[in-house]
Amino acid sequence: MPMDKKADIMIVGAGAAGLTSAIQAAREGARVLVLEHMEAAGKKILSTGNGKCNFTNQKQGIAYYRGKDPAFVLPVLGQFGLEGTLQFLEGLGIAPKCKRDGCYYPASGQASSVREVLLMECRRLKAEIACGIGIRSIEKRDGKFLFHTKQGEFESKACILATGGKSAKKTGSDGSGIPYVIGFGHKEPELVPALVQMQGKQKFLKDVAGVRIDGRVRLFVDGEAAAEDEGEIQLTEFGVSGIPAFQVSRYASYGLLEGKKVLCQLDFLPGMEKRQAKERMCQRFFAHGGGKTAGEAMTGLFPEKVNRVLLQESKIPWGREARACSQKEIGRLAYLVQHFEVDIIGTKGFDGAQATAGGVDTGEIDPRSMESKLVQGLFFAGEVVDIDGMCGGYNLQWAWSSGTVAGRCASAFCKKSRQAQGELG
Ligand SMILES: Cc1cc2nc3c(=O)[nH]c(=O)nc-3n(C[C@H](O)[C@H](O)[C@H](O)COP(=O)(O)OP(=O)(O)OC[C@H]3O[C@@H](n4cnc5c(N)ncnc54)[C@H](O)[C@@H]3O)c2cc1C
What we know:
Blueprint: E1 6-12, H1 16-27, E2 32-35, H2 43-47, E3 56-57, E4 65-66, H3 73-79, H4 82-92, E5 96-98, E6 103-106, H5 111-125, E7 128-130, E8 135-141, E9 144-149, E10 152-161, H6 178-183, E11 192-194, E12 198-200, H7 205-208, E13 212-221, E14 224-235, E15 239-241, H8 243-257, E16 262-267, H9 274-287, H10 294-298, H11 304-313, H12 327-338, E17 340-347, H13 349-352, E18 355-357, E19 365-366, E20 371-372, E21 378-380, E22 388-389, H14 394-420
Parallel strand pairs: 1-2, 1-10, 2-7, 10-21
Antiparallel strand pairs: 3-6, 4-22, 5-6, 8-9, 9-10, 11-18, 12-15, 12-17, 13-14, 13-16, 14-15, 16-17, 19-20
Helix pairs in contact: 1-5, 1-14, 3-14, 9-12
The structure holds flavin-adenine dinucleotide (FAD).
Residues 12-18, 35-38, 43-44, 47-49, 53-54, 135, 162-164, 167-168, 172-173, 176-177, 354-355, 382-383, 393-396, 399 line the site of flavin-adenine dinucleotide.
């Protein structure tokens, strides 16, 4: 427990964004205290990238970020983007390793090293982190932020809310920061799981469980194309998973929230025209299908479990002679190969999600500073804001970028208010 319950800047939440804010603000000379309700700081960082921490990506741009207004990220990334992040983390000791897909990981291969260097820098800068703090409420009174906690009252000139979203609750982000946001007059955010496995309705899913297959995932909400992505699809008993499914899942979450019909269409021959797909199937069944059954004609094209379900759904018996199938039947099969439909009826929820979509309305935040447009001296950083990144290091990039801007600008705000009060010069 820190002795001093007063600081220039109080940061709520010691995740990637909060710790970055603390470091950047302390480097600018601010006295910083981070209030964390868990017993330890930076817990979520440990689970990132399957324990290896995919902390950013070589490819950057607005296309990798989602939210009500994705362009909100531009002034933030413009101040502190990929280059800044690499310098920042390298400066702390993280040797970056870039994989072929553009994803950056620490050369140590350990997410724990990223957490450790952030904590080391906080210690070096004397940016204190108080863990196990139960905040009851936060208010701004007479130009000061007051934090009413189970451990007494804390006070600061500026406040950075970096409480994350609601994904992976066991790491501390449980949505308990949202009442503070609303308490300051900001709109109540609607949070939904993002980067999450989607639950399918069809019984055949149990027959294809465990399959990994390359393809394209297209998501339709009430018949409208909402999003699509390509890569390795994982079929599970529960539904559709894998990176392309994760990438479109936020749109499924919103669709389900609004009571809309959500449909996931899998294309196992992506990039191939309908005519070519039919030709390919005709070749297998007719030109090369002599002496083969329908099942044998499919062997070698897709995993066997998928072949079985495709034939079953096309009403072609596995053991029927391949050449005995009609053109119409093969046409239907070819169509199904590119339009394999799964009705989405749910997701794995926040506990199974890697990110949260929704958050503090970006229309209420100044992207040049991450300061609230409603309350002077109140700043936001990280996943608490209505920005969610795609898989590939973009959520952490957002944490480093927004954390840096909020930390630096909160420090500048404190300097300015000290000057105004005649404490300086
Ligand atoms: C399994 C998994 C894997 C992931 N892998 C990657 C990856 O490889 N690359 C990538 O870019 N992103 C990844 N992400 C997403 C990424 O981890 C998050 O987007 C990022 O950590 C968000 O940082 P944050 O600081 O905004 O929020 P968090 O990391 O959620 O931190 C919020 C902090 O605030 C604290 N807090 C919350 N409420 C309160 C309160 N009321 N009082 C005090 N403290 C509070 C929490 O305990 C927590 O410490 C992954 C996420 C998960 C769950």
